[in-house]
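Worked example (supplementary).
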Amino acid sequence: MNNITYFKDQFEQLQEANPKGTIADLRKHGFDAFTKDGVPTYRDEDWKYTNVSSLFDKEYQMAENSEITLTDVNAIRLPGYKQANELVFLNGRFIPNLSTIRSGSTDLIVLPLEEAAKGEYKDIVAAHLNQSSNYLNDGIHALNTSFIDGGVFVHVLKGKEPEHPVYCYHILDARQNPALAQPRSLILVDESSKLQLTESYTTLGTEDSFNNQVIEVVVKENAYMEYYKIQNDAANANQVSSTHIRQIGRSYVHTVTITLNGGIVRNNMNLVLDAAGNETHLYGLYLLKGKSHADNHTLIDNLKPNCFSNQLYKGIADDTSTAVFNGRIMVQPDAQKTNAYQSNKNILLSENATINTKPQLEIFADDVKCSHGCTIGQLDEEAMFYLKARGIPKESAEVLLLQAFAADIVDQIKPEPLRSYVSKLIYEHLAIQ
Amino acid sequence: MLSVKNIHANIDGREILKGINLDIKPGEVHAIMGPNGSGKSTLASVLAGREEYEVTEGSVSFLGKDLLELSTEDRAREGLFLAFQYPVEIPGVSTTNFIKAAVNEKRKYLGQEPLDAVAFLKMMKEKMALVEIDQRLLSRSINEGFSGGEKKRNEVFQMAMLEPKLAIMDETDSGLDIDALRIVANGINKLRSPDRAVLLITHYQRLLDYIQPDYVHVLYNGRIVKSGTKELALELEEKGYDFITDEVDLAANQ
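After joint prediction of all chains, the assembly is encoded as:
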């Protein structure tokens, strides 16, 4: 594979330029692991349904001299941006001069990761970067770690509730060549603080893109976090987006992942509940058509007692699209009185679409409540007939019913501007046949 | 307005309708009565365009058009309305948005401008008063958690909003207590007009105490075996269906 030589070359150049420190050590560690493990294939159980190795057939360009302007950024800003901290990433690198930080530095710190690793926050970075869980060990993750460069560090300070949410715009420039981006973020939500974080993804140009993202979030005692991921990129925009959230103090996390357009999209949503009494809510919605492939892998690792988690993922697959849901819940021996619920509901709209769904419970404690359920069905024929009998044509009736199906996930997007925005995206996505 | 000629219809290869003839003119109210399993609801389904039913013979003309050639939604937009025996619950779709979509789809079909929010609300208010339905129900998802009576009232409300030329009420009286029945029947009566016809499908005579039909037909074993005026319904109430069905069965066996 030409790419392996290319990656080795790029890695060596990067190490030569920045040979020392926590990050260089992590990169070295990552590249060794990548060399050993390689890109996962369908033979790896976790990648059985998602052929990520096919993404490595192209010759990507990383960190080329790509330029974007404020006009490019303006075109993709999310509603509510005037009140938001906006972080712009180009080909996986945080671009401070296109970003806007509205919160004061007594509430929120945003720094390039390299800078954070050297200065005042170096102990925090050393303690948390690449430490998020035991589940960081496949080749694709190692590849991201091999190229930690240009990432971002976000810290919500103790006791602070910044009034401005954080928006991350990931822009991939595929105007000249296929683009590969490997953004890396470390987020610390400190004691008794609050963070609302939203990420969106945009590929410029018509070449293929591949965003191999890792975001690590550490949530401390009495903190509250909302996390929204909105994936609505081009049909040849691919991504592996790994979110690791560690709740190390009793805290509250609420996430919503929306996947509309894209090529191969794999989301790893890994939660480690490493304190008693944590509460976690994971929601997901995928509305796939064309050849889109979306794979949502969730993992909730209950380490301590009395944690509550609830997961609801819903999706539809039309045309020749493929949806995968794999929900793993682990309850470790100490995690007594765990309450963990999981549900995955699907609608199959076409004979050529595929849905794979798998709950996976691994329970090593004896006093727990866990439940899971998954369904795959079709649109309700009686409801369709009822709507048509009132003069609503088939296509519009389908859109109404699918919007209704999506609504209980969309309703979980708490900020109103984002919720209406996603509603509108969904309507447009469904209405275009 | 509606002319049904020798309709035969099957479901799963079984013949349910065995040659139905029926003519309805504007302003008329017809009642179709009959014992269970006679084909009453099948007739309603065939007219509304339910795809499970296969019409094997006969024709239906509605306002000069070949009804059987039209899709379900076009039949509705041409002015045919079916009030469901079992209105469907559709969680997540607001009743108001649904009715607005239905009204505007019909207007679009007829080449009219869509109603704006103000005009639509005004129309809603008028029709709500007419059929005595509570605003609260309309802000909920379609029929979700409605009682039997509320569902039927919602059907009549939709009829009022869509202003059909022909309304087919499929067992609208079933499952209603006497108060609910009176409210629903009052709604239907208020919607009677010289250019609107109504086809009542019912098992019991009691609905006809409230809505006076011009004609009554008895459906039995897939055929209309007797037609008459509203007195026929009273006779049925008194003697039961047996007095007609025995006669038909006897004739068939001879």
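Two points are worth noting when inspecting this output. Chain A has a mean pLDDT of 94. The CA atoms of residues 185 and 251 of chain A lie 20 Å apart.
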